[in-house]
Amino acid sequence: MSDTSINLDELRQRIDQLDSDILNLISERASCAQQVAHVKLAEDKDAVFYRPEREAQVLRRIMALNKGPLDSEEMARLFREIMSACLALEQPVKVAYLGPEGTFTQQAALKHFGESAVSLPMAAIDEVFREVEAGAAHYGVVPVENSTEGVVNHTLDTFMDSSIKICGEVVLRIHHHLLVSETTRRDKVSRIYSHPQSFAQCRKWLDAHYPHAERVPVSSNAEAAKLVKTEWHSAAIAGDMAAKLYGLEHIAEKIEDSPDNSTRFLIIGNQDVPMAGEDKTSIVVAMRNQPGTLHALLEPFHRHQIDLTRLETRPSRTGVWNYVFFIDFKGHRDEPEVAAVLEEVQLRAAELRVLGSYPIGVL
């Protein structure tokens, strides 16, 4: 027997031992999670099991401790799945999302909560809000902005009529693929289905490769993938989850015009989130319609050196040509500097509502 085979045998034995050690440690962690559930329920029968700030702290700690060879994000994703499975032993997390099944929003929900979460597809963004407000789902996931197509106005408008709170965020890199079924005649594709935003994000590629194909907008990329199953001359633009769900094949991969195409999703819930250490706050402000309004709104943030990350304007529901401002900034509402800014803005505004302070997305 060669030295190479001896070393290989030794390495395999070492891997087997490590696998056993990992298995035992994961089981021990799961047992601890069950004990946490018993302690929480003994103290409060309505205890909250999923803690966004705690999860963010754990994942950031894992990434800081990681020494490779796996990169830190890959290690954090592994731990997220362990945490998801352990949390399911305490209480399975029900997550409503903008459906149908196979959408990027479902992919974002699973990225944030892990595969052990129970995902519930909803037909519209306002239905996601209602499901969470009613307590039928613990959390919801809704898109809020895309890096190339901008803000999702329906999500912002729904916040104006809801008491729901933002509990977290997740950013998903969006990769679009051109998909067909096993019966599609690939040289005869004359119709392409997709969501209007996906068409916009792949416009240049489509103009170059399928300039004469009919582009048919549908309610979601998952719906596009479903339609392709029944037609021999059509294709769909969708992601990997929809392709897997409907058994479609790739004609072309990553056809989005921008290589950095990403969508930001918000995690919505009913509870306030304590400080995690690296946080973001979202507010909606209605200002009086008078000269210098925008300067008066933004000046306290500049003076206190609070970092604004997003500013959006939407028409007010209360008057013609009045507007409300949606603002995201770094920091938590319980931090002294942030609290001071919010107090000043409150005095200058007609109305201010804190939509939530929550951990900045880890993955």
From TrEMBL:
CDD domains with a match to the protein in the record: ACT_CM-PDT, PBP2_PDT_1
Catalysed reactions listed for this entry: chorismate = prephenate; prephenate + H(+) = 3-phenylpyruvate + CO2 + H2O
Annotated compartments: Cytoplasm
Pathway where it operates: Amino-acid biosynthesis; L-phenylalanine biosynthesis; phenylpyruvate from prephenate: step 1/1; Metabolic intermediate biosynthesis; prephenate biosynthesis; prephenate from chorismate: step 1/1
Gene3D superfamilies: 3.30.70.260, Chorismate mutase, Periplasmic binding protein-like II
GO biological process, one term: L-phenylalanine biosynthetic process
SMART domains for the chain: CM_2
Source species of the chain: Vreelandella titanicae
Protein function: Catalyzes the Claisen rearrangement of chorismate to prephenate and the decarboxylation/dehydration of prephenate to phenylpyruvate.
InterPro entries tied to this protein: ACT-like_dom_sf, ACT_dom, Chor_mutase/pphenate_deHydtase, Chorismate_II_sf, CM_dom_sf, CM_II_prokaryot, G/b/e-P-prot_chorismate_mutase, Preph_deHydtase
Domain of life from the UniProt record: Bacteria
One Gene Ontology MF term: chorismate mutase activity
One Pfam family hit: ACT
Lineage: Bacteria, Pseudomonadati, Pseudomonadota, Gammaproteobacteria, Oceanospirillales
Gene Ontology cellular-component terms listed: cytoplasm
UniProt keyword list: Amino-acid biosynthesis, Aromatic amino acid biosynthesis, Cytoplasm, Isomerase, Lyase, Multifunctional enzyme, Phenylalanine biosynthesis
The name this protein goes by in its record: Bifunctional chorismate mutase/prephenate dehydratase
EC nos: 4.2.1.51, 5.4.99.5
